[in-house]
Each structure stands twice: as C-alpha cells, then as structure tokens.
Design goal:
With 182 residues, the chain is α+β, with helices and mostly antiparallel strands. The protein is 16% helix and 37% strand. A hairpin with a 6-residue loop joins strand 7 (161-166) and strand 8.
C-alpha cells in the first residue's frame, strides 16, 4: 500500500522506548525484594513462636514438661516426675506403682501413665505484647484434680515462662513460673 500523504516510505511516530534490559532488571529486583520481605517476616514469626519449644521445669522441680509444635500449635507432655511412683501407704493400694491419670473425668484414661501425658494443648503463638512473646488459645490439664483450664503463656526476658491457667477470664486463675531445663 502506498502512502499518499507523504512522498517516500511512511515514518513511524518516534515514541520514547524503554530499554528492555532495564525493565527486566527492575522487575527482577522488585520480585527479589518482595520475596525477601516475605521470608524474613514469616521466618521471624515462626522463630519467635518456636522459642517455647524445649524442656521446662515446673515449680519446685516437681516435673519436666517437654513443649513441642505440631502444625502451627504447641503442646506439652510430662517427660519426668520427681516422684514418678505412688508412695508407700497409698489409699488405693498403689504403693510403688507408676503414677497414672486417676482423676481424669474420662474413666477410660485412668490407667494412662502421667509420664508421657499431654497436659498442655492447642497453644497458638500470638505475637509480642509489652516486650513478651505470648501464646494463647490453649488448655492446660491438671492431673492432680482432673480439670482442664484455659491457658496463656508469656516468655520473660530471663527465659522463664509465666504460665497462667484460669476459668472464664484470666482474672480468675493462677500463674506458675516455669524455668528452662539446663
């Protein structure tokens, strides 16, 4: 087809053209920055939540509880008892036998040994508040009375845990300090 308005070949409008190499570098750099920010923020959350993982001494060193993660929740089980067996003269005649979950409201659990018993369940890392890492939303079970309580955990600056069990609202509860087992 012949250009009828101008003599000679048709000329294209000269629009400013960006360098394709510069565009690729910019796109790659942006992708790398977004990926790095994502990795750093998600890793930081997991790392902070995982500070709970380990072995913890309960008050008066009566027991050691191992806290572990399953999926995105944290659980704890007894791995050591200072007095793992019933004392002589036990009212149920269990002298010298390994302690079991006798007070559990579910009678089928009465023969379950205390060592290995999951007593902390469903804890979720909820971030940092007032300089302390917190876990909430779970429950703690007391095999001494067979009751479960709502639970919150705070990690203190000295590495100890404030573990609060309560009924209803946190105001109606009790706090224990657990120390990391060395």
């Amino acid at each position: 087809m012949k250009n009828t308005l101008t003599k000679g070949p048709a000329k294209a409008l000269a629009l400013p053209r960006s360098n394709p190499m510069v565009s690729l570098v910019k796109a790659g750099l942006l992708t790398a920055i977004v990926a790095l920010v994502w990795v750093l923020t998600t890793t930081a959350v997991w790392a902070n939540g995982d500070q709970l993982i380990g072995s913890w001494l309960t008050p008066e060193d009566k027991a050691v509880v191992e806290i572990y993660r399953d999926g995105d929740q944290y659980f704890g089980k007894f791995i050591f008892l200072k007095e793992p067996n019933y004392a002589a003269g036990h009212e149920a005649g269990l002298d010298g036998q390994a302690k079991v979950d006798r007070n559990n409201p579910d009678a089928s659990q009465h023969s379950q040994p205390i060592i290995g018993l999951v007593m902390l369940s469903g804890m979720n890392y909820s971030g940092e508040k007032k300089g302390k890492h917190q876990w909430k939303g779970g429950k703690i079970y007391d095999p001494g009375n067979g009751k479960s309580y709502k639970c919150t955990i705070n990690l203190n600056a000295d590495g100890s845990l404030d573990l609060r069990g309560y009924v209803g609202i946190s105001l109606f509860g009790r706090t224990q300090v657990w120390r990391p087992q060395q």
